[in-house]
């Protein structure tokens, strides 16, 4: 009986140690949650401080429009104001006073210009340069 009592006492001590360890882990996790909550509050405040941020919302089922939205929404906020593409139909957009036709080739957006094509990056760079000279 004394041997059983020692085994039981040892078992209870082990359980108590595990409970204390679990309690410490819980406290550590709560501290991490508090830090993450504070980070979320800070980031939310930064977003609020930026005011209205333009986000391009694509038409469902239009792969070109979805790719265009991903491209625009990845740009710096200041750059987005220059990327005012207005969808007219699938693959057809207005960009300023220009009507442009887009398609996807090898995973990238290309835009028909004259008799050839430009990547969207090259098109924007060229178009913005033309706009600055006007």
Give your account of this protein's structure.
- With 134 residues, this protein is α+β, with helices and mostly antiparallel strands.
- It has 4 helices and 5 strands.
- It has a 5-stranded antiparallel sheet with strand order 1-2-3-4-5.
- It is elongated.
Question: What does this entry show, briefly?
Answer:
With 134 residues, the protein is α+β, with helices and mostly antiparallel strands. It has helices at 2-49, 63-73, 77-80, 120-133; strands at 85-89, 92-95, 98-105, 108-113, 116-119. The chain is 57% helix and 20% strand.
Keywords:
4 helices, 57% helix, alpha+beta, 2 domains, 134 residues, 5-stranded antiparallel beta sheet
Number of domains: 2
Work out the radius of gyration.
29 Å
Residue share in helices?
Answer: 55-70%
Which structural class matches the secondary elements?
Answer: alpha+beta
CATH class of the largest domain: Alpha Beta
Please give the largest β-sheet. Answer: 5 strands, antiparallel
- Give the neighbour order of strands across the main sheet: 1-2-3-4-5
CATH superfamily of the largest domain: Gas2-like domain
Q: N-to-C terminal Cα separation, in Å? A: 100 Å
Low-confidence stretches: none
Got a strand count?
Answer: 5
Query: On the 0-100 scale, what is the average pLDDT?
Result: 88
Helix-strand topology string: HHHEEEEEH
């Amino acid at each position: 009986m004394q041997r059983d009592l020692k085994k039981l006492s040892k078992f209870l001590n082990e359980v108590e140690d595990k409970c204390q360890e679990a309690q410490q882990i819980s406290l550590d996790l709560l501290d991490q949650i508090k830090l993450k909550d504070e980070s979320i509050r800070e980031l939310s405040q930064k977003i609020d401080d930026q005011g209205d941020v333009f986000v391009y919302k694509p038409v469902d089922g239009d792969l070109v429009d979805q790719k265009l939205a991903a491209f625009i929404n990845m740009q710096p906020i200041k750059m987005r104001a220059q990327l005012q593409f207005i969808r007219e139909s699938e693959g057809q957009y207005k960009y300023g006073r220009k009507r442009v036709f887009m398609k996807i080739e090898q995973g990238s957006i290309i835009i028909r210009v004259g008799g050839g094509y430009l990547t969207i990056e090259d098109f924007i760079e060229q178009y913005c340069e033309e706009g600055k000279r006007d």
